[in-house]
Amino acid sequence: MAGWTLQFLNDLHGSLAAVSDAVDASKRIGDRRSELVSLTCMLMLQYELGNMNDAPASIEHLQGLAELHGAKAWVPMTGYIRAQYHETVGQHQLAIEEIERNLEMMRETSAGFQGPRMLGYFAMLIDDPIARRNALLEAETMLRDGAVGHNHLAFYRFAIDACLRSNDWDGAEKYAAALEDFTASEPLPSSNLIIARGHALANHGRGKRDQATLQELTRLRDEVERIGLKSVLPALTEALATMQA
Fold first, then answer.
1. Helices 74-88 and 92-109, packing angle to 10 deg
2. Is the N or the C terminus of the chain less surrounded, counting Cβ atoms within 10 Å?
3. Nearest to 154 by CA among 183, 185, 184, 196
4. What confidence tens digit (pLDDT) does each residue in 148-166 have?
5. Same structural domain for residues 171 and 226?
6. Distance, CA of 205 to CA of 216 (rounded, Å)
7. Calpha distance 233→95 (Å, rounded)
8. Please, what is the Cα angle at 82 between 76 and 5, to 5 degrees?
9. Cα four-point dihedral sign 90, 42, 45, 20
10. Dist. CA 32–CA 34, nearest whole Å
11. Are residues 167 and 227 located together in one domain of the fold?
């Protein structure tokens, strides 16, 4: 839990150190449930840090832990993490196929636990506008039905990128505003960064090329590089390249 909290504070390397210690301690004392949770966090962090080259063995171990422990809600999460691995190493179609295979199991076992997160990620990956819209609407319904709070943080982040990748600037700003509203009573550094990035990239997408947009995109890129959040860096780098050409 310290690792998760540090991630929300944008201390990704501190978070990785904490969850790595938790994985080691869980193995040492034979607490498989704690190992399951901490290993999941570690793999998700490696995705954010852009460092999943050695993930396949850990993913298979995670699935084994989930099956051994009878943690049905964790099995589709393993598929979600495996999809992130495929995306990271450039296997885009395999990532889509992997997440698709696990969505139905998620609906049966863990809709309120990780459903909106998985649907948001799926929406970000796919090109079909109808399937994208349906995934986003399904996730929003799950959120309204009471999905666990972390889903709001994850879903809005992926929904913003789903809209940015499909040139839906209004949609990106809608989800950025929704994330801002959700965190209004307790703003988080991680969410504040995602919100600002969403607005800045939407402005850029609409054709704004003024000094204020350049400065904001530069500020966000520098902050993302500072904390190591490589998963959200490419869009900022690409936007800046068009302004500096």
1. 170
2. C
3. 183
4. 999 999 999 999 999 999 9
5. yes
6. 14
7. 19
8. 80
9. negative
10. 5
11. yes
Tokens 């609409």 correspond to 206
Residue 165 CB neighbour total at 10 angstroms:
16
Q: Which two tokens stand for residue 69?
A: 């422990």
* Torsion 23-26-32-33 (CA) sign: negative
**Domain endpoint, select from 109, 137, 156:** 109
Place of tokens 């994330």: 179
CATH classification at residue 55 = 1.25.40
Half-sphere exposure of 125 (CA within 13 A, CB side): 25
Mark which of 75, 109, 143 sits at the end of a domain: 109
- CB neighbours of 195 closer than 8 A, spacing ≥ 6? 176, 179, 180
Q: Which range of residues forms the domain containing residue 153?
A: 112-245
Domains contained in the chain, number:
2
CB 40 within 8 Å of CB 75: no
pLDDT tens, residue by residue, 69-118: 787 888 999 999 999 999 999 999 999 999 999 999 999 988 999 999 99
Assess contact for 228 and 12: CB atoms under 8 A.
yes
Query: pLDDT-derived band of residue 68, with 50, 70 and 90 as boundaries?
Result: confident
With DSSP H G I counted as helix, E B as strand and the rest as coil, what are the percentages for the chain, rounded to 5?
80, 0, 20
* 129 & 49 share domain: no
pTM of model > 0.70: yes
- Would you say how long the chain is, in residues? 245
